């Protein structure tokens, strides 16, 4: 149907283009082209939304979005599609939704005090429909797959992406194909993919092997790749920045801190904040920092070698990053040695004056327990934020009186075994340092062990008293 495709290209040109981020390339492609890397140079793609075309003033946009929050229409209830003026889709949008977004921004007094801050807010993306931050991006990627007529949507995953793709593909009525490293995914996450009806392939290899296979499979025209390299994922995920700023009454926090795995989060939030600035919705960028786990911190290593000031603005980014061959961390969601979105993520951090640092397994575990004491449950990877903020306050990068938002990426029930082992004092980390002697115990510094108590009122009251 040539007429239809001509129309599609025309509207795509209005909403934006896919552009290569390589400084010496910059090639652009229509939104309707099924590509994931630049066909000319192999560089990473991003979507350049033609924001000026919306020709709305900031006050008008704020009013429109606020009004939609009170609407009952599915496209307005979604915390992604509510912001459709800044998304690269033409209306009517064949949107696929589970009413993602709309996640809480909590004040966290105990975690703030733990970090040495006057106050700290937690943006809990684990409160999305499948329990992780992946849902906002997946809503957009699966919508694009549907628009392109794909039969199977695939991803490689440490678990959260798989669960999210499985759910959104099920909603859209298309097949989800999931490639997982065998034996390295928490049972809870694997269970989700099974329940949502995905075709799960357990691969004999690590996450990076799965990524390589996904890139090979993506050459098949019936297959759509929904990994974080997919630029439409970033578009859905950037709405978190819009929602966060709306919740902050459009007052930019001094710092936003995210965990660093594949760097999709840093990329998406960075893009969102830059767009908000372009649209006049905020007056300045927050400083965006990324925290990795010590055993899976290729970007923190690279960052430590750079002089950050040198890279402020548009200075060229380093061309290569040494991957971590055998990434190790109990925070499985960020157990990634060769993050695919590292260039985009690094660029966002550099432009905003943020930092990239690593934290230890013990620091992650204790920070996680502290977040729990605020009544907020998250998975281990999420807790890198609070552990990292504590370090950034100690080093003076974050001032005690500055306003900070930490982005929590996954729900506590994503990894209940970890939580239980921490509190019972049986958590251990395989550092891989020496064969046979590499199990490092992690102390439950804030352990909360259940007590065995006699079946009498007085014994129970005594137990309460001991632990008050
Ligand atoms: Zn290129």
Task: Based on the model shown, name its key terms.
six-stranded mixed β-sheet; 468 residues; four-stranded parallel β-sheet; 16 helices; binds zinc ion; alpha/beta
Calculate the mean pLDDT score and round it: 91
Number of strands: 15
What class would the helix/strand composition place it in?
A: alpha/beta
Strand order of the largest sheet: 4-5-13-10-11-12
**Count of alpha and pi helical runs:** 16
Q: Could you name the ranges where pLDDT drops below 50 across 5 or more consecutive residues? A: 1-13
Biggest pleated-sheet summary: 6 strands, mixed
Strand content: 5-15%
What ligand species are in this complex? zinc ion
Give a verbal description of the structure.
The structure is a single chain. By secondary structure, this protein is an alpha/beta fold. 38% of the residues lie in helices and 14% in strands. The chain is built from 16 helices and 15 strands. It has helices at 2-15, 58-68, 74-77, 109-115, 134-147, 160-172, 187-195, 207-217, 231-247, 264-278, 298-305, 342-352, 361-373, 384-394, 416-424, 457-466, and strands spanning 16-20, 28-29, 45-49, 105-107, 120-124, 152-156, 175-181, 199-203, 223-225, 255-259, 287-293, 356-359, 404-408, 428-430, 439-441. The strands form four sheets. Strands 4-5-13-10-11-12 form a six-stranded mixed sheet, with helices on both faces. A four-stranded parallel sheet has the order 8-7-6-9, with helices on both faces. Helix 5 (134-147) crosses helix 9. It is globular, with a radius of gyration of 22 Å. The termini are far apart. Residues 1-13 have low confidence and may be disordered. The structure holds zinc ion (ZN). Zinc ion is lined by residues 20, 22, 25, 27, 38, 40-41, 43.
């Amino acid at each position: 149907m040539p007429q239809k495709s001509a129309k599609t290209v025309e509207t795509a040109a209005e909403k934006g283009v896919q552009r290569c981020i390589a400084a010496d390339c910059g090639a652009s492609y229509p939104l309707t082209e099924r590509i994931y890397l630049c066909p000319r140079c192999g560089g990473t793609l991003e979507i350049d939304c033609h924001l000026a075309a919306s020709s709305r003033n900031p006050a008008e946009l704020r009013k429109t979005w606020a009004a939609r929050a009170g609407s009952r229409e599915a496209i307005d209830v979604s915390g992604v599609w509510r912001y459709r003026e800044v998304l690269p889709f033409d209306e009517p949008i064949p949107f696929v939704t589970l009413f993602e977004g709309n996640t809480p921004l909590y004040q966290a007094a105990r975690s703030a005090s733990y970090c040495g801050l006057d106050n700290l807010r937690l943006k809990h993306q684990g409160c999305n429909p499948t329990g992780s931050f992946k849902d906002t991006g997946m809503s957009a990627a699966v919508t694009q797959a549907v628009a392109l007529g794909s039969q199977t949507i695939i991803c490689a995953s440490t678990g959260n992406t798989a669960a999210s793709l499985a759910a959104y593909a099920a909603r859209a009525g298309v097949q989800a194909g999931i490639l997982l490293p065998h034996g390295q995914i928490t049972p809870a996450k694997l269970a989700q993919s099974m329940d949502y009806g995905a075709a799960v392939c357990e691969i004999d290899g690590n996450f990076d092997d799965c990524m390589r296979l996904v890139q090979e499979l993506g050459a098949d025209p019936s297959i759509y790749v929904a990994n974080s390299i997919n630029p439409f994922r970033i578009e859905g995920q950037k709405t978190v920045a819009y929602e966060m700023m709306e919740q902050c009454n459009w007052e930019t926090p001094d710092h936003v801190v995210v965990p660093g795995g594949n760097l999709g989060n840093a990329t998406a939030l960075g893009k969102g904040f830059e767009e908000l600035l372009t649209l006049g919705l905020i007056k300045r960028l927050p400083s965006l920092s990324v925290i990795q786990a010590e055993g899976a911190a290729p970007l923190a290593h690279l960052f430590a070698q750079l002089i950050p000031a040198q890279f402020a603005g548009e200075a060229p980014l380093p061309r290569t990053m040494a991957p971590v061959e055998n990434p190790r961390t109990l925070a499985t969601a960020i157990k990634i040695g060769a993050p695919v979105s590292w260039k985009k993520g690094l660029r966002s951090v550099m432009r905003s004056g943020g930092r990239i640092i690593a934290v230890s397994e013990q620091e992650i575990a204790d920070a996680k327990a502290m977040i729990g004491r605020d009544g907020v449950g998250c998975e281990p990877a999420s807790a890198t934020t609070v552990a990292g903020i504590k370090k950034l306050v100690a080093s003076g990068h974050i001032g005690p009186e500055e306003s900070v938002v930490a982005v929590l990426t996954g729900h506590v029930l994503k990894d209940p075994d970890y939580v239980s082992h921490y509190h019972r004092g049986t958590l251990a980390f395989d550092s891989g340092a020496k064969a046979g002697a590499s199990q490092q115990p992690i102390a439950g510094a804030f352990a909360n062990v259940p007590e065995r108590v006699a079946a009498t009122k007085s014994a129970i009251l005594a137990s309460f008293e001991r632990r008050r």
